[in-house]
Amino acid sequence: MKRIVFRPEARAEALETFRWYEEQQRGLGLVFRDRLDEAVRRIRETPMVFPTQYRDLRRVLVDRFPYALFYRVLPDTVVIVGVIHGRRHPRGWKRRG
Q: Does the 3-94 domain belong in CATH 3.90.1010.10?
C-alpha cells in the first residue's frame, strides 16, 4: 500500500469543512471526517481505479457529502492536493500541481 500525504492546502480544506459541518449540526463534522477517512482508504487500496480529472490528478468522491479528494499518484506515495466542494470552480486547485 502507498503512503498518503495531504498537502497543507488540502489539510486546511478538510479541517475547515469539518468545522463548518460541525457548526451546522453537532456530530455532522464527525460523519464528514469518517466519510473522508473512507475515501482515503479507498485511494490507498486502489489508487489507479479512480478517474483522471485534470492531467495526472485523480478524483474520488466523498460519500454523502458534495466533496471530492483530488490526488496525484507517485511511485511510493499518494499526494492529496485538494478537498474540494463539487461546486467550487476548478481553476484554483488545478494550479496546485
A: no
